[in-house]
Amino acid sequence: MGILGAVMVPHPPLIIPDVGKGEERNIRQTIDAYQEAARRLAKLHPETVVLISPHLVMYADYFHIAPGKGAKGDFGQFGAGRVKVEATYDTEFVGKLCQLAAAEGLPAGTEGEKKKQLDHGTMVPLYFINQCLRDYRLVRIGLSGLSLAKHYELGQCIKEAAECLGRRTALVASGDLSHKLKEDGPYGYQEEGPAYDSQVMRVMGQAAFGELLEFREDFCEKAGECGHRSFTMMSGALDSTAVASEMLSYEGPFGVGYGVCTYEVRGNDTARNFKEQFEEKERARIMEQRAQEDAYVQLARKAVEAYVRKREVLEVPEDLPQEMYSGRAGAFVSIKENGSLRGCIGTIQAVQDSIAEEIIGNAISASTRDYRFSPIEEEELDKLTISVDILGEREPVNSADDLDVLRYGVIVTSGNKRGLLLPNLEGVDTVEQQIAIAKRKAGIGSGEKAELERFEVVRHY
User: Fold this and answer.
1) Pairing of strands 48-52, 169-174
2) Contact 362, 333 (CB under 8 A)
3) In 3D, which of 179, 182, 184, 208 has the Cα closest to residue 196?
4) DSSP for 264-281, written as a single string
5) Element holding 459 (H helix, E strand)
6) 291-320, pLDDT tens digit by residue?
7) pTM for this one?
8) Can you list the alpha helix ranges (DSSP code H) found in 224-340?
């Protein structure tokens, strides 16, 4: 026994009749598809349903798995308090999953619960599933800010847990698609919205799960999706598995995309080891990129590797360009892994005697001391993409009109609070965004006045 099948479903509360009060008729296709998906899942006779919800508590670097024996919830916040949902948890499965995740070095567990009540990302799917299926136990898992690859890896642990326990298991990946399909929708319109929905429905309809790992984070963010990580974790649970897939419906009449797909396991298929294939492509890409790295990036990489492997601070090499010895400037070192930021630390102005020393110090800090991330480990070194920004002179500006999000970085200052954002960053398209993010980093309120400075950078790849 093990994973029997899975469904990908949205979670708009208004498809519950007591919430929609007639409005649900406008997404009849989604409701019909939901009911069919629930029937297909019930025919698998699962003992355990693993449900992945974007609306469980979410941490930047940790996967929360709901603890305890069970939980209840209702749709009171949507005006339908009499509609209740209750779930009994599979505590043995949760324990095994936590054990397997720990063995793989994945930060996942039952700590950090904020609310015991079921969230609507869980209750909407269970509302339909419970009409067809009884006598099952639930495992409820949240998402994280970790990379898509890490979500896929936790999915692989779900698969292993089901097999270790001999548990008949089905998965539910709960998640809406883009929230930015229409100008008059609740979240407005972005061209990435329809583009995302078209791409992800093709991928999910064909069960081409490896492509989920290749979606850029900034593209997903602009599209305003909420389910991509759910779908990716589900895909990990179907790793190396042959599936019969079917797209049952897609629609977005209210400016939010809703897609329903089903998957039935048909045995093993070692050719569908998507994460291994993705990592192989990434390794080839990084090796090609490393061959083209200039002296600035090579120095940063050597500094990271020396410190992570041996806890040694790299000595300044003797074969660098002259300006790296004689020049002084602020520098930022940015590190990515699988397309996601893994560390970024820098200095606004020079604090070392040379650019080379500036890079070495900030490379070590970016890899081990960025408070947003755990320190980089040795097995990650071959997966890293590194860039180095050398900052030019700062100059004050009178207004945002003097800024250019592609050309200039910005420094915002209010009293002793100061924040910086580099230019030409993925997902930062306007000066207003740039200033807002810099203010957030500094702890300056959005409406609080701040002095502005701009600077140019030379970016090295």
Assistant:
1) parallel
2) yes
3) 179
4) EEEEE-GGG-HHHHHHHH
5) strand 457-460
6) 999 999 999 999 999 999 999 999 999 999
7) 0.83
8) 228-237, 274-291, 295-310, 323-326
